[in-house]
Write a sequence for this structure.
């Protein structure tokens, strides 16, 4: 059964826009994180969770915010773009959050694994944690409210369910008798 109407066209455009923005964002993130850097020395990779976060916090909260916010904000748009590209309007908020955070964590992990082959780039497990946290916060801040507004708008555009007026009973006729009487 095909559905017709402006709501379906708008949903298709929303999906296409989300997919286009997702690809553009991932290309920018890849360019920022996977290009080689020429540096005089390279620190050792951090494979201990929360080690670099605690080191940044030890230097002061303002210093930590300045240095860690970039890693949180780098992947945060994925929290909105992944559900937008999926295009699901009626989905459980918990399922949506789980899917989005898992996909964001896998993208962050893939970036860190690819950085092992790039000269001058050092993998850091805390980047995966911070990127995943950014995805989760962006998703929680934007997606549930946005979906609610879209569902309400869709219901308003559809209008109320059409009601058929009740039809009275037809006059009784003797259907099984062979004779017709019109009295």
């Amino acid at each position: 059964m095909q559905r017709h109407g402006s709501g379906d066209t708008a949903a298709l455009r929303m999906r296409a826009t989300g997919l286009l923005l997702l690809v553009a964002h991932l290309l920018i993130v890849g360019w920022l994180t996977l290009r080689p850097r020429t540096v005089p020395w390279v620190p050792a990779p951090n494979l201990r969770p929360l080690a670099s976060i605690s080191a940044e916090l030890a230097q002061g909260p303002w210093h930590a915010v300045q240095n860690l916010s970039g890693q949180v904000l780098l992947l945060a748009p994925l929290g909105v773009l992944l559900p937008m590209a999926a295009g699901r309007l009626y989905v459980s908020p918990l399922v949506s959050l789980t899917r989005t955070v898992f996909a964001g964590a896998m993208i962050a992990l893939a970036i860190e694994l690819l950085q092992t082959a790039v000269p001058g780039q050092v993998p850091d497990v805390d980047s995966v944690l911070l990127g995943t946290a950014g995805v989760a916060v962006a998703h929680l801040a934007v997606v549930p409210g946005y979906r609610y507004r879209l569902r309400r708008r869709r219901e308003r555009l559809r209008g109320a369910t059409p009601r058929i007026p009740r039809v009275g009973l037809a006059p009784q006729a003797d259907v099984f008798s062979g004779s017709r009487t019109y009295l």
Summary: DSSP finds six helices and no strands in the chain.
